[in-house]
Structures are given as structure tokens and as C-alpha cells.
Amino acid sequence: MADHSAVRAAAEPVLSSLGLELVDVEVVGSGRARTVRLTVDRDGGVDLDALATANGPVSDALDAIDALSGPYNLELSSPGLERPLRRPADFRRFVGTTVSVKTHEPVSGARRHRGLLVAADDCGIGLEVDGEHRPFSYDAIASARTVFEWGPAPKPIGPAKQAKKNRPVKERSGR
């Protein structure tokens, strides 16, 4: 299995030189089926051209490190709408947004928590969940991600409008 920190150390300067930020490193599988997934971002988001431009230089940098001896498939992608949060810097960047946190052990009776990220420092984070402040140390967090909030829900319609909406359309004969 590859050393994630070695992959990060090799890829990060290459991506930075291209104006991209390395968000996450994931190495899955073994032998010939091994895949190295790098999630990258930049202000305004990344497009396919940026990912394609980065692919060759990143691949060359990863080929040069001992942690990845043998074949692997390289995948570069954007973090998408709901991006993972792993490092303190990731959490600090998204203070003021809604996040989903899964903990190793139950906190306030639950392992899954969704709320407003109100604080983040080098020791942990603070979430506002249903009016309750919940602190979490980074060691307690199994996984965390931002939550994409869809626009407002459509207004409910009353029974009279619903009945009118469900009425069959009358056919009119043309003259």
C-alpha cells in the first residue's frame, strides 16, 4: 500500500505550480488493480482541461517516488458539490457552511451529525446542531464532508389547487 503522505508530498508542488490545490489523496486496491485518486480544486472550480493538463506532470512525479513502485491507475477529479473535509485547513475554509460529520463513537447519542460548522482550529471543530453547540476533536471524527444545500423547497399547494391540477383537460373542437 502506498504512503499517502509520500503521494501528497510528490503531487502537491506539481499541482500548486499549475494553480491547483490538492484536496484529498486516496489509494485503493493492490497489485495491478491499484488506483491513486487525487482530488484537486482551485478558486472557481476545476474543469476537464485543468485536470488533463495536470495529469502528465503529476503522473511523472508519482512515478519517481518509491511509495508507488509497480503499476497504478491515476485518477484526477474535482471534489464535487459535497467535498471531503480531512485536515484542519479544510474545516477552517468551510466555517459558516453546513457539514455532515460521522464520529467513531456516539456523541450526544448519535454517530452522524449535520449542522452549521461554527468553529475550527488545530484541535477540533464546533457544530451547531438543532440549536445545540457540539464540539468534536479531530480524533473523534471518522469522516466529514460539506453538504450541498438545494434551493428552497417548492411551496405546498392547497387541496383546491391540487384538485384543479389533477383535473383532466377538456378537448376543444376547432372551428
SSE arrangement:
Elements: H1 4-17, E1 21-28, E2 35-41, H2 48-63, E3 73-77, H3 88-93, E4 98-107, E5 110-120, E6 124-129, E7 132-137, E8 141-146, H4 159-166
Parallel strand pairs: 2-3
Antiparallel strand pairs: 1-2, 4-5, 4-8, 5-6, 6-7
Structural summary, described in words:
This protein is an alpha+beta fold. Helices cover 25% and strands 34% of the residues. The protein has helices spanning 4-17, 48-63, 88-93, 159-166; strands spanning 21-28, 35-41, 73-77, 98-107, 110-120, 124-129, 132-137, 141-146. Helix 1 (4-17) packs across helix 2. The longest helix is centred in the first third of the chain and has 16 residues, at 48-63. The chain is globular and about 60 Å long. The mean pLDDT is 86.
Shape: globular
Radius of gyration: 23 Å
In DSSP terms (H or I, runs of 4 or more residues), the helix count works out at 4
Number of DSSP-assigned strands: 8
Along the chain, the helix and strand elements come as: HEEHEHEEEEEH
Q: Any low-confidence stretches, pLDDT <50, length ≥5?
A: none
